[in-house]
Specification:
With 333 residues, the chain is an alpha/beta fold. It is built from 13 helices and 9 strands. The strands form 2 sheets. Strands 7-6-5-8-9 form a 5-stranded parallel β-sheet. Strands 2-1-3-4 form a 4-stranded parallel β-sheet, with helices on both faces. Helix 1 crosses helix 13 (310-328) and helix 6 packs parallel to helix 7. The chain starts with 17 loop residues before the first helix and ends in a 5-residue tail after the last helix. The mean pLDDT is 96.
């Protein structure tokens, strides 16, 4: 099985089978246990990777850097102003240059097309750290977290609240369809994913034993859910004026105590972070001054509750990203 990953890029979960995703999750668990027990695994010593960030990040950057260092690799970070890609040099040319210097490339930015060009022209594994369409490394961390807290993936009732057509809504739906979860997108119909992607996921779910459902009713969306998941309502790079429209649309889909009381007895709350749940950030204060809302997509009482596993998710970004690099760069599985 390990050879099936070597040299392969990690662009979207649509490129991977249920068996392959389970293999990556099992590897993530093993690497996590090794790290917790102080066992060093430096099988990728001597390799070099580059991180291309058009969008700033905390978890994605730290997970790739620490994961690479743990495996013995050297890392170059190129931030939003750190390269000429797309400015003085085309993406194709950048890919061909970096592919001759590095063993792997991570990209976090705006267009899905960019990460696909990097894959097609670099001749080394390329890892999607986030684009406008997909966020596949986050989904691996989410699924590892669900396994740890609920014991399994298949049959889990999973509800996503908010903008269901963004990179997280798309990727969670795809992952659920492949792995056999019962996915419900709870959002205004104008914020549902593209019809073509929904139809593809319905087809995948039919083969995995899962299901894909969408509803505009928050009560039906939260009813007996095992996992309640949400994300910020306005993505990085969107104009500030979008807030007014998005808050009006999505306030009924806020994850609060009422929503969580409607879930299953074993339910957990998940969020990919950062989250607007209090007034301890400049953005949180600005939103409060304008809209008198102390929390947006999730309230403070839910975020800090015993059902919240958001920091387990954040930690698991490290272990799952490490597994993706390890597997695609030839580590022994």
């Amino acid at each position: 099985m390990s050879q099936s990953f070597v040299g392969k890029s990690f662009i979207t979960l649509l490129d991977f089978s249920k068996e392959e995703i389970y293999t990556l999750l099992s590897l993530s668990k093993r690497l996590k246990e090794e790290k917790q027990n102080g066992i060093k695994n430096r099988q990728l010593e001597g390799k070099n990777v580059v991180l291309l960030f058009e969008k700033d990040s905390t978890r994605t950057r730290c997970a790739f850097e620490v994961g690479a260092y743990d495996l013995g690799m050297q890392v170059t970070y190129l931030g939003p102003t750190g390269s000429q890609m797309g400015k003085k040099e085309s993406i194709k040319d950048t890919a061909r240059v970096l592919g001759r210097m590095y063993d792997g490339i991570e990209y976090r930015g705006f267009k899905q097309e960019t990460v696909e060009i990097l894959r097609d022209y670099s001749n080394v594994p390329v890892w999607n750290g986030l684009t406008d369409k997909y966020h596949p490394t986050q989904i691996l961390a989410d699924f590892l977290t669900i396994q740890e807290h609920l014991g399994h993936l298949e049959g889990v009732k999973f509800t996503y609240f908010g903008d269901a057509r963004n990179n997280m809504g798309n990727s969670l739906m795809i992952g659920s369809a492949i792995m056999g979860l019962h996915f419900t997108g709870c959002a205004p119909k104008t914020l549902w994913p593209e019809t073509e992607l929904i139809e593809k996921c319905v087809e995948l779910a039919a083969n995995s034993g899962g299901s894909i459902t969408f509803t505009e009713d928050p009560y039906m969306g939260s009813k007996d859910a095992d996992v309640v998941y949400t994300d910020v309502w306005v993505s990085m790079g969107e104009p500030e004026e979008v807030w007014n429209e998005r808050i009006k649309l999505l306030l009924p889909y806020q994850v609060n105590a009422t929503a969580m009381k409607n879930t299953s007895s074993r339910s957990i709350f998940m969020h990919c972070l950062p989250a607007f749940h209090n007034l301890e950030t400049s953005m949180g204060k600005s939103i409060y001054e304008k809209y008198q809302l102390e929390g947006l997509e999730v309230t403070e009482d839910v975020f800090e509750s015993s059902k919240s596993v958001v920091f387990d998710e954040a930690e698991n970004r490290l272990h799952t990203i490490k597994a993706v690099m390890y597997a695609t760069l030839g580590g022994k599985i």
